[in-house]
Write a structure and sequence with these properties.
The structure is a homotetramer of 202-residue chains. With 202 residues, chain A is α/β, with parallel strands linked by helices. In chain A, 43% of the residues lie in helices and 10% in strands. The first copy, chain A, has eight helices and six strands; from the N terminus they run H-H-H-E-E-E-H-E-H-H-E-H-E-H. Chain A has helices at residues 4-14, 21-33, 36-51, 88-97, 115-118, 123-131, 153-166, 191-199, and strands spanning 54-55, 62-63, 81-85, 103-106, 144-147, 172-175. In chain A, the strands form two sheets. Chain A has a four-stranded parallel sheet with strand order 4-3-5-6. A two-stranded antiparallel ribbon of chain A has the order 1-2. In chain A, strand 3 (81-85), helix 4 (88-97) and strand 4 form a beta-alpha-beta unit. In chain A, helix 1 crosses helix 2 (21-33). The radius of gyration of chain A is 21 Å and the shape is globular. Chains in contact: A-B, A-D, B-C, C-D. At the C-D interface, helix 1, helix 2, helix 3, strand 2 and helix 4 of C face helix 1, helix 2, helix 3, strand 2 and helix 4 of D.
Chain lengths: 202, 202, 202, 202
Amino acid sequence: MYPKTVKKLIEIFSEFPGIGEKSATRFVFFLLKQKKYFLKELIENLINLETKVKACPFCKKSTEKELLCEICENPARDLTKLCLVLKEQDLEVIEKSGIFPGLYFILNEVSSPSQKEMEKINIEEIRERIKNPKKFGVFGNFKEIILAFDFTVKGRALSIYIENKLKDLPVKISKLAMGIPSGGELEYSDEETLKSAFEKRG
Amino acid sequence: MYPKTVKKLIEIFSEFPGIGEKSATRFVFFLLKQKKYFLKELIENLINLETKVKACPFCKKSTEKELLCEICENPARDLTKLCLVLKEQDLEVIEKSGIFPGLYFILNEVSSPSQKEMEKINIEEIRERIKNPKKFGVFGNFKEIILAFDFTVKGRALSIYIENKLKDLPVKISKLAMGIPSGGELEYSDEETLKSAFEKRG
Amino acid sequence: MYPKTVKKLIEIFSEFPGIGEKSATRFVFFLLKQKKYFLKELIENLINLETKVKACPFCKKSTEKELLCEICENPARDLTKLCLVLKEQDLEVIEKSGIFPGLYFILNEVSSPSQKEMEKINIEEIRERIKNPKKFGVFGNFKEIILAFDFTVKGRALSIYIENKLKDLPVKISKLAMGIPSGGELEYSDEETLKSAFEKRG
Amino acid sequence: MYPKTVKKLIEIFSEFPGIGEKSATRFVFFLLKQKKYFLKELIENLINLETKVKACPFCKKSTEKELLCEICENPARDLTKLCLVLKEQDLEVIEKSGIFPGLYFILNEVSSPSQKEMEKINIEEIRERIKNPKKFGVFGNFKEIILAFDFTVKGRALSIYIENKLKDLPVKISKLAMGIPSGGELEYSDEETLKSAFEKRG
């Protein structure tokens, strides 16, 4: 019943993460009701996304820079620390906190904690960045690799898998601390979290 | 920290209905991870939305047809009934049910049930379509106007407002029945719904 | 770890509808923290519930009266109408609305819409109350039986089942109207609700 | 409309934590529908709660024992460590994890993080238990006091308040570690949690 273009856009928006048909429909009619300017700007930026945004050759972060991204090219960063993350949003949240002075590498995401999925992680890509960062234009001299993964089943399986694949390298491998988060309550904490919170108390 | 284009798109998607910054961010990285084809198709269809999709001159439904939309131009529709709805999604849900054989008119949405908002409704547009549909290329001869609005505070204020503005016309004005919805439970029904469900029992 | 009595009470409260172990635990410690008076009053009223509250012989509503409940004994009620409900809370919500002047009968609840569960409904109990209310001390002369059941799968299966079992009696059997509830939106209405709302429009 | 006893019980259950009128009503009719045995057992255990359950003189845990509770009287516990918790459920969750070998003390709960509420904490009670546990029949010799409070605004304000009030005592005061909980995701972690998770990494 909807015109072909409306139908097609509902279909496309329905594939966006977390978006069902109802929300997708609302998006299209929202766009139809906005001033022309809004739709034009969306189109223009999507074209830029397609043509101008690329992955940084070292860390794989999205960037519009010619060579390295603004983190990898920054001489003030601590070149002895490399933080592995699963997706760019994780890198962003760490950067915003200002806690980490080193460099990053974004792994390609895995969809499940299965052995088969784990094997999609290109370990050679990680090892190359640790052993020979100069190849990518980065003067790193990494002494510590931080696995900054979610504490989900997937993130933790990955932690074990990668730690194992890197253990022959002359670097320290560390993981974030498990504990009670800001706002968390003891009554709703699981046993494992509580144990770590007690063990690392101070 | 995100590249300019990514930031701008997060900003634009954040204005989509029901979308916050987190979801908007996920949308952008979802697009970056899709095959090029997906992004191209989205852009292409947004351009079509901008250039090919217009409002039907009679009912205001979105359409890619030259003149009237496929409902208004359909000679098999019942030209004695006109159903007023608040938005195209409502028209769609009624059409899908197959219950209504007549024509429609989509009012421009109001944002609140205030008198001021009500007055944004262009009553003359509605009256013209009832009195003189031929002017818009529709051979209607309307005997019944159905106000198919939500049973929210806004929808009901609107119902009263519009009924009042049309009462001098020689047409019957009717409203949808209030009752217990499919799946509804008595224990969670409010008094008003229950009263109507008892009164219209049969 | 908790003392025996605390453990046992957590167990008992966990069987309350919708209550898990966490809430049940909170209940017990809430009771331990209240003034002694609160716990005493709870115990006293639970003893009353056990000893003084019984079911009305006609309608099965809970009552502390000797014979009939205050509805069944009220000579001002309309003795031509009998409303069947599934549970006392439904009777209560109808009474509060003030819409129904007749008498009630509370069926024993069924747990699922299966044929087997339906057959637990004691149809003879219902027929006896319609045909021979005097036997229970009620001077009814029922002309209309209203099936006021939820519009859930269970409630509707029951409606069909009971209607069928009563159809030989010289009474009109009616059901509540399906429609859009107060506060409901067209966009979120299912097809069946919408159809009924259109059919019963006025 | 409900009988007096039913009404009164709905009122009482409505004061239970997290329970509204609807749930309270369901509780009462649930009790009316159970076998007599269930209600009898509830009453009996509530009477036991009133008469047999008391607070341990040292740790304030609920107990049916004559003198100390089973933790405080256990000679195998580590008598150099005292863990302060806000409520018995927190003690229980720590005991279940098996991580903590020492003794406990349950503070009386405060309702808000305001200075006024803080002052309701009986600091002298805590100091007495640290300095002179023998007075309560416990042969403790505490070297470490662990503040095991929620990481909510209230729990943290309390942590600061109590630490300050105990700092003159010759004991180490420690707090649980903040970090990412089991199941937690970086993207949804706040800055403070992330900082602590990085700082305590290993």
